[in-house]
Design brief:
Two copies of one chain form a homodimer. With about 140 residues, chain A is an alpha+beta fold. Chain A has one domain: HIT family, subunit A, CATH 3.30.428. The first copy, chain A, is about 30% helix and about 20% strand. The first copy, chain A, has three helices and five strands; from the N terminus they run αβββαββα. In chain A, strands 1-2-3-5-4 form a five-stranded antiparallel sheet, with helices on one face. The radius of gyration of chain A is 14 Å and the shape is globular. The termini of chain A are far apart. Chains A and B meet through helix 2 and strand 4 of A and helix 2 and strand 4 of B.
Chain lengths: ~140, ~140
């Protein structure tokens, strides 16, 4: 989509790491939980997942599965929460969030947790590098 | 799966309306939001969406799309929230929740909303009938 513009509330506080399938892949700078946002680069009127074309829906579902598996394989997490909500930011986006039984919001959901913490600089850079490698299909690092 | 047993916390307060693809389809008796639960009838060790086999994953994704579209077409809602969380009930289940700007939890998420309200009896029966028809592929009613 040439007219795609990432919503400023999705861009804020996140790193834009590349593209997978038809999605922009963002990493939130929230040290409490590893948190990926997938933002399909589609027309603004597509606000809910099922409104994607069947082809785009399958591509997005494949990306959700890919990054969920990556998170399970590469990060010290115990559970993955996946959601498309969009009540506050209308641009379609999917959350993939790694959870642990000892995280600050457990067993609640992250969307009602107001505790924010940025990563330490070196952790933040390393996590971005790992995820960028996954986006590029090199998950060995 | 012959050894599938629906978790009692998913069964409680919901109507078990049938099967679509590989999922049990449940309707929560929560009048504040139309709320479908899809429960894939898979082995208990599959706790997150991406842990489904590729084939099962696609079947479940198709059911999510089908019931989301049904909700948009047949119920007075403005937005759909879709999520696989499972922090409190370990059995894999997917929430499909219809939202309105004037609902009790808007714009927050339903999972941190403690307000419960059962449907009036006639509403509850009618909604079950409508959804049962959708499960059986007859979405005209």
């Amino acid at each position: 989509m040439t007219d795609f513009i990432l919503h400023e509330r999705l861009a804020r506080g996140s790193a834009d790491l590349g593209r997978h399938g038809i999605c922009r892949v963002m990493l939130k700078n929230q040290a409490h939980f590893p948190w990926i946002l997938l933002v399909p680069e589609v027309a603004a009127e597509v606000k809910d997942l099922h409104q994607l074309s069947e082809e785009d829906y399958l591509i997005v579902c494949a990306s959700i599965r890919y990054f969920s598996q990556w998170m399970e394989d590469h990060l010290p997490i115990e559970k993955i929460n996946v959601a498309a909500i969009g009540n506050q930011v209308p641009q379609l986006h999917i959350h993939i969030v790694g959870r642990r039984h000892d995280d600050i919001a457990w067993p609640g959901v992250v969307w009602s947790c107001n505790e924010k913490q940025s990563y330490a600089d070196d952790e933040w850079i390393l996590l971005q590098e790992k995820l960028r490698a996954a986006i590029n299909g090199n998950t060995s690092c």
